[in-house]
Design brief:
By secondary structure, the chain is of the alpha+beta class. Helix content is 55%, strand content 18%. It is built from 13 helices and 12 strands. The protein has a 5-stranded antiparallel sheet. A 5-stranded mixed sheet has the order 7-9-10-12-11, covered by helices on one side. Strands 6-8 form a two-stranded antiparallel sheet. A hairpin with a 5-residue loop joins β1 and β2. α1 crosses α4. The longest helix is centred in the middle third of the chain and has 54 residues. Bound molecules: adenosine-5'-diphosphate. Adenosine-5'-diphosphate (ADP) binds next to α10 and α13.
């Protein structure tokens, strides 16, 4: 960056310097041209005076490399010229300075000479006898004058170049220094720095990025912690039924179980195996949701149908406790992942039966409102204490551990529900009163696209 700034400063300095040089040369050129012309005018007057006094012979004696003298007759024919053969020279009557001299006594012009191939300044004066004396000088004499300035100009150029180089280098370092001193992890400290006023938008972006990094870091740490906790909980939850199973199996194996115990022991082993099965199934479901189920193909799914299927699957459980399960509402299609939608409905209905009292009831209602499908599951069960409502969606959180285990709960059902609802861009509300019952309300957009 400092290299770029250095180059830009040097480039600008050199541009300004050469522009001023050209400008100064222009002024010097005009100045010396004017001097040349006024000298020419003075020389012409003097020479005219000399020719009028001494005749044409005066011109024969002139040996001057700078000035060219030409004597022209009033008819335009060249009588004498100090640089060319007058006999070969064409009629000069049409030359601007000659015409002017004939008309006004004195004439001036400048043009490229055919014979001498460079720009010439001309000055002509009409003499008393009607002839015209013309003096000319080459423009190169102006350049000769300018070149006499070449040495000091070259010195000025050299000094200016060295100065521009040194200043550009210093300036670029001065500009870059405060930027280099910015600590990337605390850009907010520099916002009040006057020197860095121009890069405040960059500082703002750095601050925003730092905050994003902090947020991302916190999120990564949080999810790592949740995963670690989950793994520890999973192994603990798996171990419990396995211990029960191996304990009863060992009793039978060692012949320590009496004949009458074998049947209840086998029953315990079966119950615990079933619990193990449910646990593994829930873990698999949750892991699938964790590892990007949101990318699964979405289909238009009728939630009413899904509830019908879930109620049907849970009929044995509801009948066992004599719980009436009713469904109201009508077809409600959402664009979602059918298996995840089924898990949501199944877990909510399962809980409504599990945590219900015998002879209780479960009401499921499906309605539509403002582009959303609303699923409500109400039970007349044990309810959830206020202080636990916020925590029931945590993995393995149970209000009453023994009641949950007794009812075959894994502690993962509502985590699956919450995760599933979130990937459908929906929300969950819970209303519950201890001892009276609970209502879980799920709102999912019909389009359900994230
Ligand atoms: P579990 O497998 O234990 O049912 P969940 O994640 O489904 O796990 O639910 C977490 C806890 O929330 C349950 O253990 C229970 O204490 C409470 N809970 C869930 N649903 C209800 C409900 N309908 N009525 C009362 N308590 C409930």
């Amino acid at each position: 960056m400092s290299k770029k700034i250095f180059k830009s400063i040097l480039f600008v300095a050199l541009c300004v310097f050469f522009a001023s040089l050209i400008f100064i040369f222009g002024i010097i050129y005009t100045y010396f041209s004017d001097i040349c012309k006024s000298n020419l005018r003075a020389q012409t007057s003097l020479a005219a005076c000399a020719v009028e006094t001494n005749g044409i012979e005066f011109l024969y004696k002139i040996k001057d490399d700078n000035y060219r003298f030409t004597l022209i007759d009033s008819d335009g024919s060249v009588l004498y010229d100090t640089s060319a053969d007058n006999k070969e020279m064409e009629n000069h009557l049409e030359r601007e300075e000659i015409r002017e001299a004939i008309a006004e006594g004195i004439g001036e012009s400048s043009r490229y000479s055919k014979t001498l191939y460079d720009k010439q300044f001309y000055c002509a004066k009409k003499l008393d006898d009607g002839t015209i004396l013309r003096l000319s000088v080459s423009q190169t004499s102006v350049w000769v004058l300018i070149l006499s300035f070449a040495q000091p100009i070259a010195m000025v150029v050299a000094i200016a170049l060295i100065l521009s180089f040194i200043l550009a280098k210093k300036l670029s370092l001065i500009i870059v220094k405060p930027i280099n001193e910015i600590k990337p992890d605390s850009p907010e400290e520099y916002k009040s720095n006057e020197e860095l006023k121009e890069i405040v938008p960059l500082l703002d972006k750095m601050i925003e990025q730092q905050e994003q990094i902090k947020r991302d870091k916190a999120e990564i740490e949080k999810s790592a912690m949740i995963r670690q906790e989950f793994t520890a909980n999973v192994s603990h939850e798996l171990k419990t039924p396995l211990h029960v199973i191996s304990g009863y199996a060992e009793l039978i194996e060692n012949g320590m179980a009496e004949e009458k115990d074998i049947k209840p022991f086998a029953g315990k082993i079966r119950t615990e195996s079933a619990r193990l099965g449910l646990l593994v199934e829930d873990i698999i479901n949750l892991t699938a949701l964790d590892s990007g189920s949101e990318d699964s193909p979405r289909e238009n799914t009728d939630l009413y149908r899904i509830v019908e299927n879930a109620i049907d699957s849970l009929s044995t459980e509801s009948e066992k406790k004599n719980i009436t399960v009713s469904l109201s509402g009508s077809q409600a299609v959402v664009n979602g992942i059918p298996s995840v939608l089924y898990s949501i409905v199944y877990n909510l209905c399962d809980n409504a039966i599990k945590y219900n009292d015998a002879n209780g009831s479960v009401k499921v209602d499906i309605s539509k409102s403002e582009g959303n499908v609303i699923l409500s599951v109400t039970d007349t069960g044990i309810g959830i204490p206020d202080e636990d409502i916020d925590r029931i969606f945590e993995r393995f959180y149970r209000v009453n551990k023994s009641r949950s285990k007794e009812a075959g709960g894994t502690g993962l059902g509502l985590s699956i529900v919450k995760h599933g609802v979130l990937i459908h861009n929906g929300k969950i509300d819970v209303k519950s009163e201890k001892g009276k019952g609970s209502e879980f309300i799920i709102t999912i957009p019909e389009s359900a696209v994230l």
